[in-house]
Write a structure and sequence with these properties.
Layout (H helix, E strand, L loop, with lengths): L11 H12 L4 H8 L3 H13 L12 H34 L1
Helix pairs in contact: 2-4
């Protein structure tokens, strides 16, 4: 029969951390991949956060270690992106100087 997809429930702290990552410069798509959250959910949280109706649930507890891991993954992603930009710039300027 039709299997209904179960809806994940996230704590308010988890949602707030996700929004903090996005406000810190992380893209919505990257944040969704890092945290394993649908992009649409992040967009909803952003919209709800702006109007002050962002809420959480106690069903899924996110430990401090999980929050730190998410933060570190986001930072690693940002640093890799910066590294790739610097690599491209180095190649560009090397070609320009010859």
């Amino acid at each position: 029969m039709g299997d209904k997809k179960s809806r994940d429930k996230y704590t308010l702290e988890f949602k707030m951390e996700a929004l903090r990552l996005i406000k810190g410069g992380q893209s919505v798509s990257d944040t969704a991949k890092i945290l394993g959250v649908p992009k649409g959910s992040l967009e909803n949280w952003m919209r709800w956060g702006k109007v002050g109706v962002l809420a959480g649930t106690k069903d899924q507890v996110v430990s401090p270690e999980q929050m730190e891991l998410a933060r570190l993954r986001a930072e690693l992603s940002r640093v890799k992106m910066e590294r790739d930009i610097l690599k491209k710039a180095t190649v560009y300027f090397t070609i320009e100087s010859h």
